[in-house]
User: Fold these one by one.
Assistant:
Number 1:
Amino acid sequence: MTGCDKPDGQGGLPVPTAPQRTTDAAQLALGKDVYQQHCAHCHGAQAEGDARWRQRGPDGKFPPPPLNGSGHAWHHSTQVLMDVITQGSAPGTGNMPAWGDKLSQQEITAVIAWLQSLWPEPVYDAWYEMQQRGR
């Protein structure tokens, strides 16, 4: 138990830090290409989403949310993001189609990596911290 009574960074327990985001140029390029081809039509060229994303439309469903870190997507785990992309939005909540039969697992993972590359550092760090607490 040596060092447990010292502040972090002075021999105490290390403070968990978010891992570096994916910097693999090929994966990010694939993610951006897949996003532009399949997602930008609804979520916007820079993943900015619909300005009214918090308000239900006339059909009772929510418009496409931002995915660039300014909306709520970063509150979800990687698995939840993968599930929504694969299976589409839950019935009655949105118009997100299921992409599981059109995109490979590699393409879905690349899209998520590219989206996370857009998130501001504090947003990514908060997302990572939430993932650690959820374990």
Number 2:
Amino acid sequence: MFKTLATSFSAPARFALVIDGLYRAVAARIAARTITAALITLICGRLRRIDTQLQALIARFRAGTLRVVVATPRHAPVPPRPALPSGFGWLLPLVPCEAACHASQLRAVLAEPEMAALIAATPQAARLLRPLCRVLGLEPALLTPPANPATAASPVNPATAAPRTARPRAAPAPALPPPPQLPPNAPAWLRERRPSIVLPFGRKKPA
């Protein structure tokens, strides 16, 4: 059934169906009295707020009027909200079949290109969806923006990698010429002077 809905509704509409299904499953526990009425009120109120805020984000995202809001520390004290159960996947034991089914549907909705683009474009969506994923036992990696393939380093396959060309070695420097030999009949003052070899750039090397 959900595959048929996936081809008929957009990702925001399918997200609303997931929230509505969870809402109805929790509200049905009033008659069974497996969950207290106070806890049911808190859970249903949280689900409705998540859906309303996310649908507003999607509408602004489509219209191009969405502003990225970075969380800043609040100086004014925030009034405490009524506490809900804590723990990873805490809704699964309360409504096992329905929560597991809607968790699978939510995973598919978050993988849609439009939802992935929304999560990558603004941190508000990830902050809004993170508690819902925790409630249903979904890993936080679903709300991580995908890496840019242009900047991701791809592994090099040694079998297909092009062979590296060896750098040509520099030619060895030419050998210096031997010092000149004086003739036997050269004067004594010339024999006592040490001959020198003229090197490039005007430098001399003693023999």
